[in-house]
Structure formats: C-alpha cells, structure tokens
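Lab notebook, design round three. We kept the backbone fixed and only want residue identities now. Task for the bench partner: fill in a sequence for the structure below.
Input structure tokens:
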C-alpha cells in the first residue's frame, strides 16, 4: 500500500483522486535543451513525498539532480551536466574527466578507477596495442545508455517507478563490458535502489574495477554536519603528512573554505548482520533543528572498500561517499596484491545500493543508532591512519 500525504492509499483510491498517477508521482522522459547540457535525455522520478531525482540516460544513467521538499541533496559542480559529445577523455593529461564531473552520483569504471594508469595490453592479443591508457576514474560515466524501458509497475497496492538501460564500454581489440542498470523507487517513499550488473560480453580476459562517486552538497552538507559510518579503523589519508593543517577532520564538517585542498580518507567499514554498510551525512540544524540527512547502504561483499572525499572549497562545496571494489591506490596496487578482478566471457558482477533521505531528528537518530550498533566509529576527528590494508577477495 502506498503512503501519500500522510495517509495509506490503495491503487483504487489513488485512481479515484486523479486522472493519472503523474499528478502525484511518476517517471518522465525529457531532453535538456541549452548550453553544455543540450541534447541529454533525462528521466525525472517523483515519488509523491516531495522526493525528486533525475537519471541522465546519456550519461550512463547516473543520478544528477536530487532534492527533497525543495532542499537540495545532490551536488552541482561548476562543470555542469555536460553532453558526452563534448567530453575529451584523453584531455588534460588524464584529468579531462573533471570537466564532466557533477551530480549526486557519477559511476567510475568499468575496467579502471582512481588516478591515471598505463596498463600492459598483452591480454588483448593485438600487437599494435601495447598499453591500455586510462584517465582518472575510467570511461563509463560519459557513455550514453541504450534505454530499455521506464515507467510504473503496480503489484497489488504497491507501486514501483523504474527505468532500465544498457551502457556498453567497448572497443575493437579490447574490452567489451556491459553495464545493465536498473533504478527503482517506491511511490510514497523518499528513497531509490540502484541495481547494477557488469558483464564481460567479449572474449578477452578483462580487468574490472568499480566505484560510485556519490556527492552530497548544501544543505545536507553544512557547517556542523556529521559523517556517520561504521568505521573500525581509518586505513589511510591522502594528507597524512599535513593531517591537521587545514583544521578539518573526517567526522565534523565545516563551512565552505578559502583555498581548501581536497582531502581523501579510506575507512575500514564493518557490515551489519545482513552484510550491509550504512553511511550517512546529516545536518542536525537544518530548518531550525528539524534535521535532514542522506544515507547510502552498500553490500560489503560487493564494495569492500570505502573512501570519504572532502572538497570544501568555496564554490565547489561537496562531500563524497565512495564505495569501491578496490583500495585507494588503484590498479597497480590491486595487481601487485593479486586483488584485481578479471572477468572471463560471460562473467558478471552484481551491485545493489540503496539511497535514502533521513527526514527529521527521529530518522537521523535511528540511523545513528543503527550505525553505532554495528561498531562505534572513532570519536576523534583525526584518527591515526593505520596503514593496515585488508586482503580483498576477487
């Protein structure tokens, strides 16, 4: 049964009150028409609770906008939602990806994540391809999807909004990896679930690395906001040699800063009894103390690693929650440790991730209690990095 405007509603009663469900909720396909965004197909989801988000069909079905009752959740960068036709993957020494980096969630992969890398290409058996040269965070996030379908599905009195598409990262004498992505959101809930399958459609052994760059902005992120996670230890910090110089730790978040240099942490997370890892950013002071937060739940068997990205520079104010298949040192580190995932023809990996609004102090308190019951995270904003790297299973 759906819940609309504080009341339980059946499919029949919803139909009695309007000529179409789209008055309250639905999925709508549209095309952006101006500037860098021109020509991008976009699916807009509305769940009937004031929760709205958009999926960019022509940007790997990544989630761009996200808001709840008029309050922004997803981050918009100065780069905007750039049409992939304008993207220069090889540009700027491998940093061209940053000119297409914006939105609540940007997918990284499918065969490479993290910083630039030149990898031996002998597994592709083509004498003229000596190396696979990868820019930061891989190719997948700027490849258009083939839209399989979208709409609404009723199951009794429950209604699910959904879309599905296929994103193909492929070349001759190289990888042929397919991302099959399905997004589902229940009418009457302020949440959605992302269901991904990555399949090796080709006949070469192909590396696979995967990461979600989930980016939250103001007002979920604000001065005094808290980062909540079931952290057993902080493994690594990019800024360990200057740990306190910027005055920003991992847990208590600041206002926008002048001349802030990004900080990245890798935390070792503990899963709950169901293997899930909940991580949240919460603003207790939002709307006079009513409170607002956003929580991401991953499966630790799918994403055994997690990073926290802090970009508190004025004009680019964001925090990133980054579940990953591999440690933060990327492909060379994974290969050296025997942890690089290799897919044969027909092999596939599955990823199921839930994104949810935390509306009000009670919801925030419940999330904090749930996370604290898994493991008590470090109270010190500057926990000493352990440099202890857990062995990952392929």
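Proposed sequence:
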């Amino acid at each position: 049964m759906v819940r609309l405007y504080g009341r339980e509603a059946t499919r029949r009663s919803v139909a009695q009150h309007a000529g179409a469900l789209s008055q309250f909720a639905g999925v709508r396909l549209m095309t952006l028409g101006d500037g860098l965004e021109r020509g991008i197909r976009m699916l807009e989801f509305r769940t009937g609770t004031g929760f709205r988000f958009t999926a960019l069909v022509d940007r790997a079905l990544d989630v761009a906008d996200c808001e709840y009752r008029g309050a922004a959740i997803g981050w918009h960068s100065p780069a905007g939602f750039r049409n992939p036709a304008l993207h220069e993957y090889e540009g700027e020494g491998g940093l061209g990806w940053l000119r297409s980096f914006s939105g609540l969630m940007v997918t990284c992969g499918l065969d490479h994540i993290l910083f630039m890398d030149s990898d031996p290409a002998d597994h592709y058996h083509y004498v003229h391809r000596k190396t696979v040269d990868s820019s930061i965070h891989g190719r997948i996030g700027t490849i258009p999807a083939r839209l399989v379908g979208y709409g609404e599905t009723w199951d009794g009195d429950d209604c699910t909004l959904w879309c599905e598409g296929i994103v193909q990262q492929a070349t001759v004498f190289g990888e042929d990896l397919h991302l099959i992505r399905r997004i589902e959101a229940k009418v009457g809930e302020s949440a959605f679930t992302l269901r991904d399958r990555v399949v090796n459609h080709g006949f070469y052994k192909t590396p696979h690395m995967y990461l979600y760059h989930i980016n939250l902005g103001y007002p979920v992120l604000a001065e005094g906001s808290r980062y909540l996670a079931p952290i057993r230890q902080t493994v690594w910090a990019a800024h360990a040699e200057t740990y306190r110089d910027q005055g920003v730790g991992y847990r208590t978040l600041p206002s926008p800063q002048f001349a802030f240099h990004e900080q990245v942490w890798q935390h070792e997370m503990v899963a709950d009894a169901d293997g899930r890892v909940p991580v949240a950013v919460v603003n207790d002071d939002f709307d006079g103390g009513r409170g607002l937060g956003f929580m991401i739940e991953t499966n630790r068997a799918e994403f055994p690693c997690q990073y926290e990205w802090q970009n508190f520079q004025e004009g680019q104010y964001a925090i990133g929650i980054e579940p990953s298949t591999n440690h933060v040192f990327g492909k060379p580190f994974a290969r050296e440790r025997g942890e690089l995932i290799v897919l044969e023809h027909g092999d596939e990996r599955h990823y199921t991730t839930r994104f949810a609004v935390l509306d009000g102090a009670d919801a925030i308190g419940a999330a904090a209690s749930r996370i604290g019951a898994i493991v008590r995270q470090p109270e010190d904003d500057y926990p000493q990095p352990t440099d202890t790297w857990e062995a990952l299973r392929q």
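Keep this in mind before ordering anything: The chain has a mean pLDDT of 97.
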